[in-house]
Amino acid sequence: MDLSAFYGAFSPACFALLGLWLVAVQVRLPVWEKDPERRRRSYGVALYFALPGLMSMFALIDVQTPVFWRVSFGIVAVSGVVIMALVRGFPVAPRNDDTGRRALPGVDRLGLCEASPCRNAYLDTSTNRSRRYCSDRCATRANVAAYRARKRLEADRSDRTGLAADSAQRASANGER
């Protein structure tokens, strides 16, 4: 399988993103120079762009010899680990969660869709952390199913009491039972 087209496009994209990031850092440099936490994060983000770009570039040197690019991937990965250790970890500092374990910020914002057939994960970006579904489609499906279940329950109640569906609805709207 020839991956040279992929690596030929991926490497320049990584380096273009690295260039854009460095421009952003230069714009914020007076503020970020004074803050060691932001400086550390900027190094980490730059590495996230530079290392995949380097790996892709090494893969293009000798596409026919997989040993070459596999070894170069290993070297770049180990150097990335060493550099990340030198800049003290991730671009976003880990924190302790409720159980005392180390967790990255935002992990508590991950959730599983509550729609019955769906089990997709989602990232809750709402301000009050109220998201329950992965998409509008799942939310609509769940709301329609709940509406139909309420209507079936009302119909069952009206059948048992002998009231017509219209009078049962009026009675429930008026608060009567």
Structure in words:
The protein has 177 residues and is mostly helical. The protein has helices at 4-32, 36-61, 66-86, 136-161, 165-174; strands at 95-96, 102-103, 110-112, 121-123. The chain is built from 5 helices and 4 strands; from the N terminus they run H-H-H-E-E-E-E-H-H. The strands form 2 sheets. The chain has a two-stranded antiparallel sheet with strand order 1-2. It is elongated, with a radius of gyration of 28 Å.
Number of helices: 5
Give unreliable regions as ranges: none
Strand order, main sheet: write it out. 1-2
Largest sheet: 2 strands, antiparallel
User: How helix-rich are the residues, as a percent range?
Assistant: 55-70%
Radius of gyration: 28 Å
Query: CA-to-CA gap between the ends?
Result: 71 Å
Number of strands: 4
List keywords for this structure.
single chain, 177 residues, mainly alpha, two-stranded antiparallel sheet, two-stranded antiparallel ribbon, 5 helices, elongated
What is the topological layout?
Elements: H1 4-32, H2 36-61, H3 66-86, E1 95-96, E2 102-103, E3 110-112, E4 121-123, H4 136-161, H5 165-174
Antiparallel strand pairs: 1-2, 3-4
Helix pairs in contact: 1-2, 2-3
Précis, in short:
63% of the residues lie in helices and 6% in strands. It has 177 residues and is mainly alpha-helical. Among the domains are: 4-86; 136-174.
